[in-house]
Amino acid sequence: MKICPVCPIYIPSNTYSISLGRFERKLGRKHFYDTFTHNLDKKRKEVVVYTQNNQPIKATIEQTNKYKQKIKTYGKLSKAYSLNYKNKELGYMVLANSPDNDCMILYELYVNKKAQGKIKGIGTELLKAAVQESILYGHQGKIFTFAANNPPPYVFYYKNNFRPYGKNAKDLTLLLQFAAKHPDLSIKMILPNVKHMYMYLTKESAKALLEGRQLYKE
Question: Helices then strands (H, E): number in the chain?
Fold first, then answer.
C-alpha cells in the first residue's frame, strides 16, 4: 500500500531493501555511480550548534559505521551519520534513498540524552544534512519519515517544516500548530491517542529549513 504522495514507499519495511542491480538498470550506469559517490561522506561537514547560553559550538557531521546492525535492518542502501563534538557523538541519523528513487527516507534521528536540553540545534542540523543529501540524490530536499518515540517528536518535526500525512492530516496539522504555540502543554495531552505519525518534507519546506525559516506562526 502506498503511503506518501512525496515518496510512494511501501509497507512492510523489508520491501525497502532492493538490489543495487535494479537501481543500476533503472538509473543508468553512469547516473547510478554518480548517485552513490556524491554524498555527505566525501568529507566531514562542519555545523554550528549552541549551548544553553546561546554560545556557538563548532561540530561536525560525518558518515559512521557504528550502526551496522541498523543499516542491516533497513537495507543495503541506508547510511548512518553522526553529529560529533570533540570526538563525542551528540546525535545520529539513519536514512536511505527510497526504492522509487524520488525522496530520502529518514528511518531514525536521535539526540544523545546527555546533550538534550544542554546543546541546542543537534536535531535540526541533522535534518539539514538529510535535506542536503536528498538534494544530492536529485530529490530537491524531499524527505519522508515515520515519527514515533517517547516522548513523541511530532512538534520537533513540525517546527522544522514537516507535515503529517495520511488519515486526518489536516486535523493533526492544526493540533500540532496548537502544540507548537503551547510548549508548556504535554503533547500526549493534545494528541492522547496518536502512537505514531507519518510526516513528510516538501521541496519548498526543505528550502525554508535550509534558510532557517519556520513555516508556522507563533
Answer: 8, 9
